[in-house]
Design a protein that fits this description.
The protein has 2 domains: 1-44; 49-172. It contains 2 helices and 8 strands. The chain has helices at 2-44, 136-141; strands spanning 53-63, 68-78, 83-94, 97-113, 116-126, 146-151, 158-162, 167-172. The longest helix is centred in the N-terminal third of the chain and has 43 residues, at 2-44. It is elongated, with a radius of gyration of 29 Å. The chain crosses the membrane at residues 20-40.
């Protein structure tokens, strides 16, 4: 009789241990799954940080020391699916001559950190009026692969958009 009670007690203890082991395994699996989901979402970039607006501006860039002037109208469009485009329509003057600038640059962009974004897969479509030599625009005027967007505190819905070197545009959004 005593042996039977010990066997029953041992069986209950084993069942409790099995239950505790299953709970621990379940907890570890849930933690591992959460970590994997977090890593995948951080590697692919969070869509919640992506922007959705369009703005236009006139940009005049002038470096008189290098006889380098760009005067162009810009239309910047950023969508919350990570796609964007920027159109340029204007003129460039530098030491090699005067050129007509007329192109659209399409790109994908990703959130990088606190106000910074990375451009991916840039492709340009040139109009027949664009006379800039191959590579000159990308080398001198649009070499960047990152941009930043910062709110302007004193102006409602105003964003300052720039690259690593300087601010470029101020956009007012809805």
């Amino acid at each position: 009789m005593l042996g039977k009670k010990i066997k029953i007690s041992l069986k209950k203890a084993q069942n409790k241990m099995n239950m505790i082991s299953m709970v621990i395994i379940f907890f570890v699996l849930m933690c591992a799954a959460s970590m994997i989901i977090y890593l995948i979402s951080s590697m692919t970039g969070s869509k919640s940080h992506l922007l959705d607006f369009a703005c236009s501006s006139n940009l005049k860039y002038e470096n008189t020391n290098a006889n380098n002037i760009m005067n162009t109208n810009i239309l910047l469009v950023l969508r919350n699916d990570g796609k964007g485009m920027i159109t340029f329509d204007g003129n460039i003057t530098n030491e090699k001559g005067n050129y007509k600038l007329s192109r659209v640059v399409y790109f994908n962009y990703e959130y990088f950190n606190s106000r910074s974004f990375i451009l991916r897969e840039k492709t340009s479509t040139l109009s027949k009026r664009d006379t800039i030599p191959n590579g000159l625009f990308e080398e001198r005027y649009f070499p960047t692969d990152t941009f930043y967007v910062a709110p302007i505190d004193n102006i409602k819905n105003a964003l300052l958009i720039g690259n690593r070197l300087s601010p470029v545009l101020i956009c007012i959004t809805d």
